[in-house]
From TrEMBL:
Classification via SUPFAM superfamilies: Aromatic aminoacid monoxygenases, catalytic and oligomerization domains
Coiled coil stretches, renumbered: 487-514
Keyword Oxidoreductase recorded: yes
Keyword Cell membrane attached: no
Family the entry assigns: Belongs to the biopterin-dependent aromatic amino acid hydroxylase family.
Required co-factors: Fe(2+)
InterPro entries in the cross-refs: ArAA_hydroxylase, ArAA_hydroxylase_sf, Aro-AA_hydroxylase_C_sf, Aromatic-AA_hydroxylase_C
Signal peptide segment: none
Pfam family membership, one: Biopterin_H
Residue stretches making up the Biopterin-dependent aromatic amino acid hydroxylase family profile domain: 1-342
Protein name: Aromatic amino acid hydroxylase
């Protein structure tokens, strides 16, 4: 499949820390067996999903230019996705949830470019191009759903994680790799499964990231839409799994009306889902997302927000009521009557306003950390941020003045004011002191010999969220996964089978082939007796040629194979049904 390269401008504007996850898609790496797997799944899906999927799915297949017979080329996808305001990039398997969501916020679809093995054709725990390309891409052609996905990414990437969240991500990534790879000892797979199972059942109090991952799972991945009695599929995990898309429509899977309680319903990635949520429409998805966001530290701030950041031990940001944003690893908060009165970071810290780093307040200026009082001055009803020029002069908050500021909560700042930093509206964001001492009771929080002291101005924390305010403030090009995807092993026998698949593909496409259909069937039955998909493809071409003798031989072989390999019997039947059902209908 040829495709001309055409860049998508959405990819060009991605920040560097997201670009580190992008890998090239080498289309030549896809083998003839890979192409046959894609074709089988897509033929089955389009046939079945046309009856049970949301109507946006089939419309989206057409809009996004996905072909049934060919694995999508990323360049071709980008050329078409650009028309609906999206882009696609290739990545290596699972990436951290926050990065995955941030890509969505930029209208960029993340596609794991590997493809599942034939042995895992129905379902794989590893993200692959069938799941991402055939599952996610078509449905985003619906503008209402696409906006939900973008908005979800925008909010989700700000969710505060726990240390256990990252452990689970690494464990799930490893499990997805070892389960998809061939030749991995069962004991190694079992150990990876046990680790995921342990973490899933010992997450403690769910973090914001855990909860929003739950919402993502029950909507974007495994969502149903419509009514509980008559739901349709829109979740990518279901759209890309020929096994689960059928299973989920049976009474074995409980259907629950979708609401915010789904955020507290964890999932097991290693097993079919015992229950699924049904949203009334795509508008309800956005409504529940906003309901959830209203409870996040992103919007509530306060003492609990800073405490979540401290617990996370990760880079985060608090925004004060003045708009000043402090980004770093928060390690301490002093509270008074349920309010934070002093906050502290350790290590590199940056100060920003409206997501743009303040001049001279990057990580070089605050390499050792940053601490500042918050709140009201003791005995004064007017906050510093609300003071006009006369008020500031009256309280001696003025350049060159030696002053002591006593904050509620027993925080005291004593020093000489050097200058202040204001925003464009003239509001004070920072006050700079020299010869400064900051204390909490008897505890010294800042001493004069430590240098110039920058005090943040803000009566309260209005927002707390994961990551930096300005993505350029920190070097975030540091993600190194603990596990890498394992490529399929090559052998002479495997190469021979691949060549047979290639010849059948050439025959189907009207290209020159090295052997005839009959010779290909003889070779596969003689040397690759356990392979079933090539025989199904041979039956398809034999039917087109009206070669009844070969059809009978192939069907007899497949019947024996169904007995010898009962685990693939339904896959064989599914493939044959696609080939022969039209003929059966015509005979009727």
């Amino acid at each position: 499949m040829e495709a001309n390269f055409e860049s998508n401008p959405l990819i060009d504007r991605l920040p560097k820390h997201l670009k580190q996850f992008i890998i090239p898609q080498d289309y030549n790496d896809y083998t003839p067996i890979n192409q046959a797997v894609w074709r089988y799944v897509m033929r089955k899906n389009v046939d079945y999903l046309s009856k049970v999927a949301h109507n946006s799915y089939l419309e989206g297949l057409e809009k996004t230019g996905l072909e049934i017979d060919n694995i999508p080329n990323m360049y071709g996808m980008n050329r078409i996705l650009k028309e609906i305001g999206w882009a696609a990039v290739a990545v290596d398997g699972f990436i951290p949830p926050s990065a995955f969501m941030e890509f969505q916020a930029y209208n960029v679809l993340v596609i794991a470019c590997d493809i599942r093995q034939l042995e895992h054709i129905e379902y794989t725990p590893a993200p692959d191009i069938i799941h991402e390309g055939a599952g996610h891409a078509p449905i985003i052609a619906n503008p209402e759903y696409a906006e939900y996905l973008r908005r979800f990414g925008e909010i989700g990437c700000k969710a505060i994680s726990s240390a256990r969240d990252y452990e689970l991500y690494e464990a799930v990534r490893l499990l997805s790799i070892v389960k998809e790879a061939e030749g991995i000892p069962e004991a190694e797979i079992k150990a990876a499964e046990d680790q995921v199972d342990f973490l899933q059942n010992n997450m403690g109090e769910l973090s914001e990231m855990s909860k929003i991952r739950n919402l993502h799972w029950w909507t974007v991945e495994y969502g149903l839409i419509g009514t509980v009695e008559n739901p349709k599929i829109y979740g990518a995990g279901l759209l890309s799994s020929i096994g689960e898309s059928a299973w989920c429509m049976t009474d074995n899977v409980k259907k629950i009306p979708y609401d915010i309680s789904a955020a507290d319903q964890s999932f097991d990635i290693t097993k079919p889902q015992p229950q699924l949520y049904v949203t009334q429409d795509f508008a309800q998805l956005s409504s529940v997302l906003e309901e959830f966001a209203n409870k996040m530290a992103l919007r509530t701030g306060g003492l609990s927000g800073i405490q979540k950041l401290i617990t996370s031990k990760n880079l985060g940001t608090v925004e004060l009521s003045t708009g000043l944003q402090i980004s770093g690893v928060f390690t301490n908060v002093i509270e008074n009557e349920g309010k934070p009165v002093y906050i502290q970071t350790t290590g590199k810290t940056a100060l920003s306003y409206r997501e743009k780093e303040l001049v001279s307040h990057g990580t070089d200026a605050h390499a050792e950390g940053f601490g500042s009082p918050l709140g009201m001055l003791k005995g004064i009803n007017l906050a510093i941020e609300d003071m006009g020029p006369r008020d500031l002069r009256a309280y001696d908050i003025y350049e060159g003045e030696q002053i002591t500021l006593e904050f509620e909560g027993n925080i005291k700042v004593t020093g000489e004011i050097v200058t202040g930093t204001r925003n464009l509206q003239g509001e004070i964001l920072l006050i700079k002191f020299k010869n400064c001492t900051v204390t909490h009771g008897e505890t010294i929080l800042f001493a004069p010999e430590w240098g110039i002291y920058d005090m943040a101005v803000g009566k309260k924390i209005t927002s707390a969220f994961s990551g930096p305010a300005d993505v350029n403030s920190f070097d975030m090009i540091s993600h190194v996964p603990s596990s890498n995807t394992i490529k399929q092993k090559k052998s002479a026998k495997r190469e021979e089978l691949e060549n047979l698949y290639k010849n059948i593909r050439n025959l189907r496409e009207g290209k020159s082939a090295e052997i005839t259909l009959k010779e290909a069937f003889a070779a596969v039955t003689a040397n690759h007796e356990n392979d079933w998909l090539l025989s199904v493809e041979i039956a398809e071409l034999a039917k087109k040629e009206n070669n009844t003798d070969l059809i009978d031989k192939v069907l007899n072989h497949l019947e024996k194979l169904k007995i010898n390999r009962p685990e693939v019997a339904h896959l064989i039947d599914g493939g044959l049904e696609l080939i022969f059902k039209k003929a059966i209908n015509i005979n009727k």
